[in-house]
Amino acid sequence: MPKIPPVKGTRDFYPAEMAIRNWIAQGWREVSQRNGFVEYDGPIFEYLQLYTQKSGDEIVSQLFSIPDRAARDGRDLAIRPEITPTLARMVNQQINALPRPIKWFSIPRLCRAERPQRGRLREFFQWNIDIIGSDSVLADAESIFTAIDYLRSLGLKASDVVARISSRSMLAELLMALGFAREDLDKIYVLLDKRPKMTESEFSKYAAEQISDADLLDKMMRLEAVQSLDELEPMLQSDAARKGYADLCELFKTLKALGVGDYCEFDIKIVRGLAYYTGPVFEIFDRGKSLRALCGGGRYDNLLSSMGGPQVPATGFGMGDVVLELLLAEKGLLRSEASHLDFFVINADTELDDKMLMAVSRLRSQGYATAFSYKKTGVGKQFKQAAAQNARHTIVMGRETIESNQITLKNMADGSQKELSLDKFLENPEEIPNS
Amino acid sequence: MPKIPPVKGTRDFYPAEMAIRNWIAQGWREVSQRNGFVEYDGPIFEYLQLYTQKSGDEIVSQLFSIPDRAARDGRDLAIRPEITPTLARMVNQQINALPRPIKWFSIPRLCRAERPQRGRLREFFQWNIDIIGSDSVLADAESIFTAIDYLRSLGLKASDVVARISSRSMLAELLMALGFAREDLDKIYVLLDKRPKMTESEFSKYAAEQISDADLLDKMMRLEAVQSLDELEPMLQSDAARKGYADLCELFKTLKALGVGDYCEFDIKIVRGLAYYTGPVFEIFDRGKSLRALCGGGRYDNLLSSMGGPQVPATGFGMGDVVLELLLAEKGLLRSEASHLDFFVINADTELDDKMLMAVSRLRSQGYATAFSYKKTGVGKQFKQAAAQNARHTIVMGRETIESNQITLKNMADGSQKELSLDKFLENPEEIPNS
């Protein structure tokens, strides 16, 4: 029978890769918890409609859908491409029972049917944190802070990564003040979103194709070239624009007070595509700009109500594991969860089988990672096996163990050994010498 | 817009349910590690063919399949209903690079399109451990021991759960010695597998329908009624039967030496359906028999070679989370991962915003789970919020914090409080009194 390969764009997590994945997830979990978030999760699949009704167009085009045979109720399913629709569904279901603000995090496995390429796979893990029930800028700041807090904890400095921050609502007001119609805004968002991937001349050409009015085009190009919040101030012509601007200034002030101001910059081109964002939005990039965004998020005050729930404000972000791992590898900051064996029990006498198994069992029940050889081979081969499994200590049980209850304990790091009473050792393995 | 419900047979893990799921997974992980297993994982979907070629018929009929549009290479995909085919694929891919025995564990999310019922859902988590590259009975014993080691660590006693153990290879030899043809064996396996779910008279009727030869039927019924290994001894008529019997006796002896003999019983009716098992097989049940099997596994020496790899022996098991959780709830043994907040910082003075944020940030960067209120409300309301979030301590920052750098630290458990210097506290929060 021919071997069947894995599906392209998926990953096999052999123990070495799994140890890295667990280390990343554990870091996400710890930083979430210290920032006051609690963990949730939903199913890996939902009704297809949950995604087609509200996710961005790009995401909908990448759904892995499952025909309804299995659901047996006439509705297609889809593997989750993001967890926010599930979050909105879950929160809407219990909105009156949940004390606010709801501060939740999750580390979902997500699947998108896209062409695999550097930094993009068809299956990945994404850290999500969300704060639901607060319209305060403090919540937006806490969301961005939590993302930076994690990256900073890995050793990434403000010279390595940057959070580019803007406001969708402020941008909308600015564009309308320039003369754009509300129905043209989506087109401009797409334009700005694509800006960083284009050269200046490519962008000029593309923008001219999208905006036929020369005056409007010129105004948009000047807005796109804005580098700082100060430059924007004279352009504020409505209360809504001034409110969005003031919130953004407050956001930067709060991030500075939280000690991460140097990781944050204003960038008017950050719009987060066509998804459900309504207020402050941000993306985190490597300063070297060799990679896609590490993280993206923002405020989405209308999502819950658009999915049949009440009007409840919300803000949050998602950070995938694929780009993150590329960056950490590049910077030499990739680590993995340590795994080790405390004891390898070597059987030097076939009469000892039962005694050896008893010792193994006693050590394990006290929490020590313990192994032994299934094969009755020589002591030398068993030592090799212990070394191959990175055992910290070996215990040799031989003739003396039968005669006088003695074992030989060896520290595999420094080679030192000691004769011990088996019974006393099993009663208190923590007090072993050289450990 | 109408609310879209979750798909039947899936679970929403709100924080309380997630804490239980994490506690179960953490227990699986710890017991795996102390028994010398290392973690791996594969993708959530594979080519459909990986499952249709080797899994049991029941599993194939329950596949969630995904049409090939997304894969774009003419082959359908399926969400994994079990992880063993992925394991076999991964091991076959690197068989020459992996030192044996390969002792791996995984905690995959699995999906099966079946009718949801008590103990069976369409999405669940399953602890898998496998030992590949050893044909020793010690490996089978280690597999069964690991399952029991976990259950025992939860507080389940030999009076609560039992591992029922038999041997597929020995049973085959016994049946053929009675006169059954090799091609009839699958029929008998199904018969025996269904036995525990039927009354005696239902079973007699069903068996008579399946076995037309009265003499063979009578022999099968006498075999099925066998209660102990001793009763079987006179029935061993081939070397292969005697080998299977001797291995089974050795298996029980080893489990006894490992200290879990009282959890183990021989049961000739254990065959594990029509899946890929070739030697010792087992299932673990609650003694009360109110639930489905908690765990099932056995030896599968031909799977790797049947999937295009070399002939390598293997043994292992799977334990799902659904039945386990039902049993633990029934016995009052269900726990959850503790989550708490170390500090809730209360802002009693609006002039303090920046100072409060700095304190929050400093505490978090030292690893303390810390929260504050987004709303500028009264101190009393903030205390209530701290209590609702199970904060261990509150820190009140007020007028004194501005005047003389003083904060009030309150232990929320006993209500005691203390005035402290903010700077000193932030330098060493671990030395806080009453913590």
Which helices and strands appear, and what pairs or packs with what?
The structure is a homodimer of 435-residue chains.
Chain A: H1 15-34, E1 38-39, E2 45-47, H2 48-52, H3 57-60, E3 65-66, E4 77-79, H4 84-93, E5 102-106, E6 109-111, E7 123-132, H5 137-153, E8 161-167, H6 168-178, H7 185-194, H8 200-210, H9 214-224, H10 229-232, H11 239-257, E9 264-266, E10 280-286, E11 295-299, H12 303-306, E12 314-320, H13 321-331, E13 341-347, H14 353-365, E14 370-372, H15 379-388, E15 391-397, H16 399-404, E16 406-411, E17 417-421, H17 422-427
Parallel strand pairs in A: 1-5, 8-9, 13-14, 13-15
Antiparallel strand pairs in A: 2-4, 3-4, 5-7, 6-7, 7-12, 8-10, 10-11, 11-12, 15-16, 16-17
Care to describe what's here?
The structure is a homodimer of 435-residue chains. By secondary structure, the first copy, chain A, is of the alpha+beta class. The first copy, chain A, has 17 helices and 17 strands. Chain A has helices spanning 15-34, 48-52, 57-60, 84-93, 137-153, 168-178, 185-194, 200-210, 214-224, 229-232, 239-257, 303-306, 321-331, 353-365, 379-388, 399-404, 422-427; strands at residues 38-39, 45-47, 65-66, 77-79, 102-106, 109-111, 123-132, 161-167, 264-266, 280-286, 295-299, 314-320, 341-347, 370-372, 391-397, 406-411, 417-421. In chain A, the strands form 3 sheets. In chain A, strands 1, 5, 6, 7, 8, 9, 10, 11 and 12 form a 9-stranded mixed beta sheet that branches. In chain A, helix 1 packs antiparallel against helix 5 (137-153), helix 5 packs parallel to helix 11 and helix 7 runs antiparallel to helix 8 (200-210). The longest helix of chain A is centred in the first third of the chain and has 20 residues, at 15-34. The radius of gyration of chain A is 29 Å and the shape is elongated. The mean pLDDT of chain A is 92. Chains A and B meet through helix 1, strand 1, strand 2, strand 3 and helix 4 of A and helix 1, strand 1, strand 2, strand 3 and helix 4 of B.
